[in-house]
Amino acid sequence: MYRMRLFAVRHARAFERIYAAVERVMIALDPLFARIGYDRVERPVAAVESVVKGFLFDCRMCGQCALSSTGMSCPMNCPKELRNGPCGGVRPGGYCEVRPQMRCVWVLAWEGAQRMKGGARIHEVLPPVDRTLAGSSSWLRVSREKAAERRAARAAARGTAAREAVARAFPEARASEPATAPLAPEPPAAVNREERRR
Amino acid sequence: MSQSDPSPAYAPPPPGHVSHSRLERVLRAGRFAVTAELNPPDSADPADVFEAARPLAEVADAINATDASGANCHMSSIGISALLTRAGYSTVYQISCRDRNRIAIQGDVLGAAAMGVSNVLCLTGDGVGVGDQPGAKPVFDFDSLTLLRTIRTMRDQGMFLSGRRITRPPQMFLGAAENPCIPPLDWRPERLAKKVEAGAEFIQTNYVYDIPLFEAFMARVRDLGLDRRVFILAGVGPLASAKAARWMRSSVPGIHIPDALIERMEKAAKPAEEGKRICIELIQRIRQIPGVAGVHVMAYRREHQVSEIILESGVLEGRRPGRRGRRAPDSADGAGGGT
């Protein structure tokens, strides 16, 4: 609904907060989703997402939600589906070139971004839409991506990333003498000399 | 052009350059550059292309081949660019995102580069609704920024967007458009920055008829330091009459013409002459604005005035761009000496 879309942009700051909260919940649910199987939760979550975001933002379920980078104005409502800002045809007063009765999605995005804490994200160049992901859940995608990122960060902090690289570089040693190129998770007491002394 | 026209082996671009483009060389040398838009023929005859190019070539460092601008069908920009480039003209190959998807565009870029085209202008494109075939399917798989980033990836990383290797990357000087005089005005300079981030090395703006607006835009551009990162060519063009100006303003997307200019056209005894004079004045005022690297003349159906406008404005400072062919498209048309 166009009106609701305008409302979302006017309250972009509040929606930004809500969105951050939803994101945190989705990331926290990652172990649960992983246990049930992302494949099995995909369709019910996508259905909920489609209804909620459809009502609020006229969401088109592109599957690669960029709302937080576009002032909470969904770029897929642009008749040209631009992902990186307005075209050169914006009409006086900020109306759309193709649908003159509608305000330009990107003029709204710019207004929304001014109200948001992370509004500067609008300056980042977004890639073209991957059409194979249409209809899928962005929320679950965020959950998977961020959770994987966090796991990777934790692994790096523990030093396992470097250990994995060593194991990959010395595959023979890894096979014949695994302790020289270990890969199994290390308990803190095994790797922290300070803790061992205590 | 068959066996007598073997594909030339292009050497790497000169140091500090990304392409063999003459436009790039002129701009990097700090000269005030001139580009001009060609009116594409509704014809399959190459002679029509050369005839349209001739009056522009003597004053333009590059000729823009539009890609179905205004969503009206004409000879393709890749066809025009290839013909002209092979005949020794310097061209800007325009790509609009409206009509082709990523597969077609990346292939076209390689094809154009293989034929020697070295400048490309990445555009979003007008909606299909304003054109002569409004029932067409709008594609818009890319937008101008993802298009820029894709061609830059092809050129600098030597790969398609899929990651597949390109054995001979396209050496293209990358351009984009900007529209400084229409909303959202306060965002336009930032949007320019985003285009530079995506890969733009030169900018050709839409028509600038409102100098104060353009000055404000350029001031912000300088504040952001963009004038040192991208060459900006301001778009200009002669108005034919007050009526034509009004029509352009209401019917062509993205054109802003102040009322004062239209009044001046209305009062003129010879509107066409007045339109030309206004255009020369605009060019001379634009020339004075710091950070502007050149002008881009779009004289739709007034191509015969382009040469006079540029020469009378004095911006070439004695330079004669012209045509530098390796060979003529036909023996009747002798090519100039190579440089």
Compose a concise summary of this entry.
The complex is a heterodimer of chains A (198) and B (339). Chain A is mainly α and 198 residues long.
SSE order of chain B in H/E notation?
HEHEHEHEHEHEHEHHHEH
In round numbers, the mean pLDDT of chain B is 92
Helix/sheet category of chain B: alpha/beta
Quickly count the domains of chain A: 2
What is the overall shape of chain A? elongated
Q: Count the DSSP helices of chain A.
A: 10
Class by alpha and beta content of chain A? mainly alpha
Q: Specify the number of helices of chain B.
A: 11
Largest sheet of chain A: none
Number of DSSP strands of chain B? 8
Low-confidence stretches of chain A: none
The portion of residues forming beta strands of chain A comes to under 5%
Note the main sheet of chain B: 8 strands, parallel, barrel
Percent strand of chain B:
5-15%
State the separation between the terminal residues of chain A, measured CA to CA: 64 Å
Structure description:
The complex is a heterodimer of chains A (198) and B (339). Chain A starts with a helix and ends with a helix. Chain A contains 10 helices and no strands. In chain A, α2 (12-28) packs across α6 (138-158) and α3 (30-36) crosses α4. Chain A has 2 domains: 2-148, no CATH class; 170-197, no CATH class. Chain A is an all-alpha fold. Chain A has helices at residues 2-10, 12-28, 30-36, 38-57, 105-115, 138-158, 160-169, 171-176, 188-191, 193-197. With 339 residues, chain B is of the alpha/beta class. Chain B has a single domain (22-238, 280-313), classed as TIM Barrel (Alpha-Beta Barrel). Helices cover 37% and strands 13% of the residues of chain B. Chain B contains 11 helices and 8 strands. Chain B has an 8-stranded parallel barrel, surrounded by 6 helices. Chain B is globular and about 60 Å long.
Task: Offer a few descriptive terms.
heterodimer; A: 198 residues; mainly alpha; 10 helices; B: 339 residues; TIM Barrel; eight-stranded parallel barrel; 11 helices; 37% helix; 13% strand; DUF5981 (chain A)
